[in-house]
Design brief:
Shape: globular
Structural class: mainly beta
Strand content: over 45%
Oligomer: single chain
Number of helices: 2
Radius of gyration: 24 Å
Number of strands: 37
């Protein structure tokens, strides 16, 4: 036995002593008929990071943060969750000559226990972006809602966004550099090293030349709002922005503000795919604009359908949509829902070509119009939650384009009191339903909704919040993708034969 083999055995023994469960397994050779590992165990995640963009630059802004973690089986009794300001000072504190670090910033909010929402408030236009971390029992399914009411000015109305996990690739179809739009791309870096980001803009004729789109640096523990109209001289109503992080990771969201139609946050579209679902278009929408983009080299031809309460229907005059490769395509669908809840279902007419998509929704008329954005979403999956719901101001839309599904919806305890309540619904194939929400008994404050499909059929969901300020019908819509609260961990068995080779 050579010295390398002895070292490996010693190292393995030491690892086993530390973990108590350390095992090594040699992959089965082809044709062995055996398996190197057993079935994967589904376990709760142990750590979750969330990033919330700076809510508004308006002095009239009133913002509420709501944190919620659903109760998850298999977690321990320990854990914490906190939201703190994203400031470069925390990263630079150690660079002073005396090498003394500044004291940690006070958390914006600190949850007390899973199953009950916690809220925090701020006002004015100086509120920073937030970096959140949850571990232990607070990590699985942790969600934070940022909701802002702006009484007047550009982008006035109700703006909402679900604080998102950091990532390295984002697509935002539906942004604009038009004269009546003020769109900011917010990039937040949660790490102690700088992130380097490339931005690409695509319009109706293809790639749009940008002045400073490549190699943008986002400082450690900080957030950068980028006015999209400063990246190019071209004024276009409909653009797609691609955020590619070449070093590090960031959170990304677009604040789309209109001079006359209010504004809202535009979250990233789900990853490019051949078929897409845009869930939960309000039944009283007065205008719906669909924006799509394909990043590949081939054109995409899509069948456009609306999943209504009665089933899948085809909008008259908009049966199909042709999306040229590398170009942004937009189409006005008008009041496509015609008084009923609906979701857009986009499928290939022939071959499948990956696309991204989003819609802008307008409610109200005249000078009392407000707008919101719904990106194409991924399915609910195992479970999804959304916070900051009120007894009368929330609407949950569920759609099952591919087959009938059963869904359990749980309303949590209220942030200031109340008992949780649940209800099960059946969503017929190809339909969208605005379901009557279970409301916590004795509700005080706001509550969270948790959606759990009980069948294997894919279910898509979105939640609309409404609120009126100065007679303007403000609203905001968030989709509910899988909360990724659990992870599959393959079982491993001890096999030291690998050390003998």
């Amino acid at each position: 036995m050579n010295r390398t083999t002895l070292s490996l055995i010693a190292g393995t023994a030491a690892l086993a002593a530390v973990t108590g469960f350390a095992t090594l397994t040699e992959p089965a050779a082809p044709g062995d008929g055996g398996s190197a590992t057993g079935a994967a165990a589904v376990l709760p995640v142990e750590r979750t990071s969330l990033l919330c963009p700076a809510p508004s630059s308006s002095d009239l802004a009133e913002t509420t943060y709501t944190s919620f973690t659903p109760v998850t089986k298999g977690t321990g009794s320990d854990g914490t969750a906190q939201l703190r300001a994203a400031t470069a000072d925390s990263a630079a504190a150690g660079s002073a000559a005396d090498d003394k670090k500044k004291p940690a910033a006070k958390p914006v909010l600190t949850p007390k226990a899973p199953g009950t929402p916690v809220t925090g408030d701020t006002s004015g236009g100086d509120a920073p972006a937030l970096v959140g971390t949850a571990d232990g029992r607070f990590a699985p399914g942790w969600t934070v809602q940022e909701t802002t009411q702006v009484a007047a000015g550009t982008g006035r109305g109700l703006l909402g966004v679900t604080c998102a996990e950091p990532d390295t690739d984002f697509w935002f179809p539906g942004v604009s550099t038009a004269a009546d739009r003020t769109d900011y791309l917010h990039l937040t870096n949660p790490d102690d090293s700088a992130a380097v980001v490339d931005l690409e803009l695509y319009g109706k004729d293809g790639a749009v030349p940008t002045t400073v789109g490549e190699g943008l640096t986002v400082r450690p523990n900080s957030s950068e709002p980028i006015l999209l109209s400063t990246l190019t001289d071209q004024k276009q109503d409909d653009l797609t922005v691609h955020v590619n992080v070449r070093s590090g990771r960031v959170g990304a969201a677009v604040q789309a503000l209109d001079d006359k139609l209010g504004g809202d946050w535009l979250a990233a579209s789900t990853d490019p795919a051949g078929s897409l679902v845009v869930p939960g278009i309000p039944k009283d929408a007065t205008a719906v604009r669909l924006v799509a983009f394909t990043p590949g080299d081939a054109d995409a031809d899509l069948k456009v359908q609306l999943a209504a309460p009665s089933g899948l229907i085809t909008p008259a005059g908009n049966e199909t949509l042709h999306v040229k490769a590398g170009m942004t395509t937009a189409v006005d669908l008008g009041d496509v829902t015609r008084g009923e809840a609906g979701s857009l279902v986009l499928t290939p007419t022939d071959r499948s070509v990956p696309v991204v998509a989003a819609v802008r929704v307008v409610r109200g008329k005249g000078d009392k119009q407000e707008s919101a954005y719904i990106p194409a979403a991924s399915p609910v999956g195992t479970r999804a939650s959304v916070a900051d719901n009120t007894a009368k101001g929330s609407t949950l839309s569920l759609t099952a384009p591919q087959g009938t599904a059963k869904v359990k919806v749980t309303a949590s305890a209220g942030s200031a009191g109340g008992a949780a309540a649940s209800q099960t619904y059946t969503i017929k194939a190809g339909t969208t339903q605005d379901v009557p929400l279970p409301v916590p008994a004795g509700l005080k404050g706001t509550y969270a909704l948790t959606v759990e499909p009980l069948t294997d059929t894919p279910v898509y969901a979105s939640r609309m919040l409404v609120g009126t300020a100065d007679g303007v019908p403000g609203f905001t819509i968030q989709t509910l993708p899988d909360d990724r609260g659990t992870v599959a961990v393959p079982e491993a068995e001890e096999d030291l034969r690998v050390l003998q080779k």
